[in-house]
């Protein structure tokens, strides 16, 4: 199946993400030098910024040649219905998650499980049948992320 995304949108997204990557990389330069761990706390954001920039360059290289040949279709998939309120709900959950961690109401593991369960519930169109799988996924991702960051990267999570 051919890519139906307008290459102008892909180019704009790639340029925006490259700019964001540059901002993250420059901001991570001010992080303190490592005392005990070999890589330090700046290695993860710097590495992610470099990987994200590289992937955006690939996206640019693939989108630019399609600028001349792209033909917009009016409705490529009529059975897909947009749900803009889901994105608003995910954004509100994200702000609440950050606030809960920032004010110390909950620690990372319970807050992360609640946050990922809420997002998964919204993204599965509020299906109660999928909720046990969403909760299991939330527990696995949150606990494994906690262990990865605290035991391997030596980054303390709230």
Q: Low-confidence parts, pLDDT < 50 over ≥5 residues?
A: none
State the domain count.
2
Helix content: 55-70%
The number of helical segments is 5
Could you give the order of the helices and strands? Answer: HHHHH
| Strand count | 0
Rg for CA atoms: 20 Å
The overall average pLDDT, rounded, is 90
Q: N- to C-terminal separation?
A: 44 Å
Q: What characteristic shape results from the CA principal axes? A: flat
| Structural class category | mainly alpha
Tell me about this structure.
- The protein has five helices and no strands.
- The protein has two domains: 80 residues; 77 residues, no CATH class.
- Helix 3 packs antiparallel against helix 4 and helix 4 runs antiparallel to helix 5.
- The chain has 158 residues and is mainly α.
- It starts with 6 loop residues before the first helix and ends in a 6-residue tail after the last helix.
- The protein is 63% helix and 0% strand.
Please supply descriptive tags for the structure shown above:
158 residues, mainly alpha, 2 domains, 5 helices, flat
